[in-house]
Structure formats: structure tokens, C-alpha cells
């Protein structure tokens, strides 16, 4: 949580400057490319996030690698993260930039858990249903969660709906345990004890 709130200061500043220039979408895309490059090469990611590499050396290398591949704003931002020893925030900042883009465009993400992959048609139908239900443009982000057994779990903002098989089974289990006292002295096989 602390990393997220620290990252929020950086992402808010970056988004604000990019918005003033009308470049919020392109800067977010460039940041995504930097994050993807870092994640695709373990050695590069290790170098970038290493606390023992001299800051000036890291700044020079990062600047030269990004030169002509990214805007001056993004290069300066990544170098700022290096100078402030906040390199480990880059992925969180990228995610927060997307959240700000979504908010600006009137889109709201929904975390959707499903026991198996959903095809594009089902995701589209789910997006339409959720958008009608919440009165906003909902963008579902699915995650495979095999332990759900069937159905879905959906979280939009602070609202959580569990329509999964495992959720219904858990609800039934709790109901049975809560009502077991009202059955009287029955044994596990259902016969009344004496």
C-alpha cells in the first residue's frame, strides 16, 4: 500500500504534465513499452532496479538506451525515478497511468475472476451487462481462478459480487452450520440422539 501511495505522487505528476501537452495516451504507451522491455530481459531488469549500481552510470545508460526511442518527458521521468531511488515503482506508475486514462475517459475497470478463460464474445457481453448495471463504461479485466469451480466473481470499485460455485457452496456451508443448532440433538447421520 505504501509503494502505491508513493507511486501515486509520481504518476499524478507525470499524468498532469503529459495532459498539459496532450500526450497522456502516448506517454502511457511509451511507459508500457519501457516496462515490457524491462520485464522481457532479466539482466536488464536487475540492472535497472539494482541499488548498488552507481546512479550517474545508470542515468547515462538509461538516457542513451531510451534516446530517440521515447519522448524527452518519459526519458526525464525514468531518470528521475533513478535519481530518487524509486526505480521499483515504474510498474505501479504504469498501472496508475492506465487508471487515470480510464477515469478521464469515463471508463472503470472491473476485476473478473473466472475458473476458465472467457472468449472475446463473453467478455464483451459481460462488459455490456456491467455497464448497464453500473451506469458507467465498465472494462472487465479477467483473471483465471480455477478454485471458483464455475460462475464468476466481479469487483467494480468497492463493490464485490460472488456468483461462483465455490462461493455458493461456502454460503450453503455457513447456512448449514448456523442452522445446525436449531436441529436439536441430531447426530451426523441425521438421527436424533437420546
Any descriptors?
194 residues, alpha+beta, Peroxidase, domain 1, 2 domains, four-stranded mixed β-sheet, 8 helices, 4 strands, 58% helix, elongated
Question: Could you characterize what this model shows?
Answer:
The protein is of the alpha+beta class and 194 residues long. It folds into 2 domains: 2-102, Orthogonal Bundle (Peroxidase, domain 1); 108-182, no CATH class. It contains 8 helices and 4 strands; from the N terminus they run ααααααβαβββα. The chain has a 4-stranded mixed sheet with strand order 2-1-3-4, with helices on both faces. Helix 7 (120-134) links the parallel strand 1 and strand 2. Helix 1 packs across helix 2 and helix 2 packs antiparallel against helix 6. It is elongated and about 75 Å long.
Sequence-ordered SSE layout with sheet pairings:
Blueprint lengths: L1 H19 L3 H17 L1 H8 L5 H12 L5 H12 L6 H15 L2 E8 L5 H15 L2 E8 L6 E6 L2 E6 H15 L15
Parallel strand pairs: 1-2
Antiparallel strand pairs: 1-3, 3-4
> What form results from the Cα inertia axes?
elongated
Tally of domains:
2
Q: Kindly report the spatial arrangement of strands forming the biggest sheet.
A: 2-1-3-4
The helix/strand class is alpha+beta
> Which whole number gives the mean pLDDT?
88
* Assembly category: single chain
The residue fraction in helices comes out at 55-70%
Low-confidence stretches: none
How many angstroms separate the termini? 55 Å
Succession of helices and strands: HHHHHHEHEEEH
Strand elements, count? 4
Strand content: 5-15%
- State the name of the first-level CATH class of the largest domain: Mainly Alpha
Q: Rg, please?
A: 24 Å
